[in-house]
Amino acid sequence: MPLTLPLTLHRPDLIRSANFIAGHWHPGPGALLPVTDPATGTVITEVPDSGAPEARAALEAAHAAFPAWRQVPAKQRAAIIKRWNDRVLAHQDDLGALISMEQGKPLAEG
Prior knowledge:
- The chain is 45% helix and 15% strand.
- By secondary structure, it is α+β, with helices and mostly antiparallel strands.
- It has one domain (12-103).
- The protein has a two-stranded antiparallel sheet with strand order 1-2. The chain has a two-stranded antiparallel sheet with strand order 3-4.
- The longest helix is centred in the middle third of the chain and has 20 residues, at 52-71.
């Protein structure tokens, strides 16, 4: 019997329907694409049908942010990455369920 994943998440705000560029969420150029669970066909969310302009904006934002990041001491960068890791682990059940739903993977692989 296949595993039925709950569609209710503890943190539904983990699902975003926008592009994160330069520290802000941007809705995208207009059209939205459905993200479906390949096992059930259920639409999980919709995401912007972004293209080259959005990719270019993200690349330029990352390029602009790099000099400041490069100046952050390694110990401080490690602490920032550790905090990010801690947040991922704190929400691993929801993140795993989302990956499983999006990719049709078993929950253990999500």
